[in-house]
Design brief:
This protein has 2 domains: 211 residues, Alanine racemase (TIM Barrel, Alpha-Beta Barrel); 96 residues, Beta Barrel (Lyase, Ornithine Decarboxylase, Chain A, domain 1). It is 25% helix and 27% strand. The protein is built from 11 helices and 20 strands. It is elongated and about 75 Å long. The protein binds pyridoxal-5'-phosphate (PLP).
Length: 369
């Protein structure tokens, strides 16, 4: 993987914003509730290890990742806090988790059976049982199978560390389905006695809009990065600060005459004489190809993206001739103006999560504060 450290296009990540967002969430938690920073997918594009370290400074007690390799990368970076893999890990690889003190999610009896057939690792495997209360993704769904799982997970090969569920609609106005899931959760967890160390139901949206929900651990993802989990649907109940911005510099400037076109497909034609700037950034960096017609910030002014975004370059219409090297903000703040990741997501019909996790590895990530 090549990282572009010799180009003007880069991601700026404000560590202070991450610390601020975590502290905002902590204010809403009881003192016995552990905040786990969800740092899967390269910390939502912000950089796995840098974000994990920043989260610790702000009081995070552990980490959630999607896949075992992300957990191993945290261990290799010297982090010793609890790590939970939220997805299903192949039983054949589970010994690697046990050897590295990484906790795994288990959501089926078949998984336990497969694991028990393998040579046992010396260390007990730390396990969180996933309960599927309506997300329909992974987890135990009925009391009888959960009872059997409890009998297994309480044997010596395992350290029964947690139980959790995940809500499908915590970011919506209508809480009907949310309450249905919550009641299923209460029904299933009734039979778990004693409860394990960590009982958790809260992603960002639940931690923000359903704060009276039980549990002693929260899995804080998108809000840690200062992004609203609902896009713009619900107002955040925390004063979030977006941590990431994408900046570049104009590297080519030219006058375009009325009738002349820009970029592949010649889908943009100048109606009058105008100035066009080129920016060294494209869809290979994670800025969607379909952003034609949207805008970026130059000198605190919105400038339209003209023509199709190319793989590595894109063009904007300038208010007048500007020097090469002029700063451009693709998202983030510039002067009094701001472009949010959610606005970009809305423009192409997706969610802020997808834009963030699509930010390419080749973008240099620079950390402030
Ligand atoms: C990704 C994920 C989270 C974090 O979700 P956010 O909406 O980003 O807070 C929490 N729990 C589970 C199970 C997840 O997969």
């Amino acid at each position: 993987m090549v990282v572009g450290t010799h180009r003007a296009t880069k991601l700026l990540i404000d560590r202070q914003a991450i610390r601020h967002n975590i502290k905002q969430q902590q204010k809403k938690l009881t003192p016995d509730t552990a905040l786990f920073a969800v740092v899967k997918a390269n910390a939502y594009g912000h950089g796995l290890v840098a974000v994990a370290q920043t989260a610790l400074e702000a009081g995070a007690k552990g980490f959630c990742v999607a896949i075992l390799d992300e957990g191993l990368a945290l261990r290799q970076a010297g982090l010793t806090q609890p790590i939970l893999v939220l997805g299903i890990t192949d039983p054949e690889q589970a010994h690697v988790a046990a050897e590295n003190d990484i906790s795994l999610t288990v959501g089926s009896l078949e998984w336990f059976t497969a694991y028990q057939k393998l040579p046992q690792s010396k260390q007990p495997l730390k396990v969180h049982l996933a309960l599927d209360t309506g997300m329909g993704r992974i987890g135990f769904r009925e009391t009888p199978e959960l009872k059997q799982a409890l009998a297994v997970v309480r044997t010596a090969a395992f350290d029964f560390e947690g139980v959790f569920t995940h809500f499908a609609t915590a970011d919506e106005q209508d809480d009907h389905y949310f309450m249905q899931q919550f009641h299923k959760w209460e029904m299933l967890t009734k039979i778990i006695d004693p409860l394990p160390r960590y009982v958790h139901v809260s992603n960002s949206a639940t931690g923000m809009w359903h704060t009276n929900i039980a549990g002693n651990m929260v899995r804080m993802g998108i809000s840690l990065y200062g992004q609203n989990p609902s896009g713009d649907v619900l107002q955040p109940s925390l004063a979030l600060q977006p941590a990431i911005s994408l900046v570049s510099k104009i590297d080519f400037v030219k006058p375009l005459h009325a009738g002349e076109c820009v970029s592949y497909g010649a889908t943009y034609r100048a109606e009058q004489d105008e100035w066009i700037g080129t920016i060294p950034l494209g869809y290979a960096d994670g800025y969607p190809r379909a952003m034609q017609g949207f805008h970026v910030l130059v000198n605190g002014q919105f400038c339209e993206v003209v023509g199709r975004v190319c793989m590595d370059q894109m063009m904007i219409r300038l208010p007048h001739e500007l020097p090469i090297g002029t700063d451009v903000t693709i998202f983030g703040r510039q002067g009094d103006q701001q472009i949010t990741v959610t606005q970009i997501a809305d423009y192409v019909g997706t969610i802020n999560y997808e834009i963030l996790t699509g930010l390419a590895p080749r973008l240099d990530r620079q950390y402030l504060n």
